Amino acid sequence: MSIRGNFYRVCFFGMCVFITITFYTIQKSYDGDESLLNGYLNLTGKVVVYAATPFFGSPITNSYLKNCPESVKTSCIITNKKRHFCNAHAVLLFHSRDINEKKLGRLKRRTDIPYIIMASENPYYANIRKYENYFNWTMTYRMDSDVYYPYGALNRRKEIVDKLVSLGMNIDRFGKIYMNEPKWCPRNRGPEGPYKFTIAFENSNCKDYVTEKFWRKAGRYRVVPIVMERKIYKNLGIPDDMYIAIDDFPNLTDFVEHVKKISENETEYIKYHKWRENYRIVDTNEDNYGFCQLCQKIGKQKTIPKQKSYENLAAWHSTLSCDNSFVDSFTIM
After folding, report:
1. Which parts of the chain span the membrane according to its record (predicted)?
2. pLDDT by residue (tens digit) across 58-95?
């Protein structure tokens, strides 16, 4: 066999390997974060959402739709590629914690589509500024947002936990705040874990602000959450017997006695799990429920109507929607 023949065979083999690796890389990218295939997508007839910022530093891509209904996945595309900006039906996201003021000023402002700001944090941490009449829609955990994106800070939750311990309540405390971060965490033991109750205090008591620390502990770990104020949870339609609220009691001493009583009475304790017969918790934050809602909202509008805008977003998502005086009312006595 000639040297030339061997050379052609090696070249052919090398080209096959190159094509195989390239195809695999693109396919893998699509299965994961769509970062490469994003540039090859067919946008014809689809709702195109342009992600102008990352989400806590990570790119917002079409993978955010992976748990949406099939009708949404086949009719909507989320892209962060600048080449798709002109084709977008909505300029999403602007995630509040990732907005770069200088880049915001350089981005050409389209007036024919809604500009959307997303905030997953409460007002103490969302870093939302005025942005006078720049944004048209909000996408947050608040029920009065244009796109509802629930979970599925400034108060002193440590102080009230320490107060409960001083009153005789047995609480295992973990985390940086207690300088106790074991590699093995008991909360990850699931239904067979050692706990009946869990402290589910949010870092601020704000309107509609109920995060995964409540939903996952009640659902995944099957324990009874202990919260601060009932009205926040009641306003979201959460069953009253799903949790124990401290403000149902005149003082912490009575609350601790109630928890001890429930803990020792299996019949009474089981009542806090009866809701499971009629409800199933869906982790809307992990499933990116808000992005599914966004695509559906845009898709239903055959033509984008004249846009409203928020004159002062900082005022809309302000600390006035929070009440952290609760801790004082139960610890200063």
Report:
1. 7-26
2. 888 888 898 888 888 888 989 888 888 888 887 666 77
What is 44-150+287-321's CATH number, 1.10.10, 3.30.310, 3.40.50, 3.10.450? 3.40.50
Q: Which residues of 194-228 are buried (b: 16+ CB within 10 A; e: fewer)?
A: eeebbbbbbbbbbbbbbbbbbbbbbbebebbbbbb
pTM score, whole prediction:
0.61
What is the distance between the terminal CA atoms of the chain, rounded to a whole angstrom?
Answer: 96
**295 touches 68 (CB < 8 A):** yes
Examine the pLDDT at 273 and tell me if it is beyond 70. yes
Q: What six digits make up the tokens of 256?
A: 């601790």
**Would you list the domain boundaries of the chain?**
1-31, 44-150+287-321, 157-277
- Beta bridge partner(s), residue 78: 49
- Mind listing the pLDDT tens digit for each residue in 279-306? 877 766 665 778 888 888 888 775 555 5
Q: Find tokens 């009440």 and name the residue.
A: 323
Q: Which CATH architecture has domain 157-277?
A: 3-Layer(aba) Sandwich (3.40)
Retrieve residue 225's tokens: 């959450």
Give phi and psi for 316, each to the nearest 5: -65, -45
Is the dihedral angle over the CA atoms 185, 190, 195, 198 positive or is it negative?
positive
Write down how long the chain is: 333
Q: Give the dihedral of Cα atoms 124, 125, 130, 136; nearest 10 deg.
A: -120
Tell me the C-alpha distance between 159 and 267, whole Å: 32
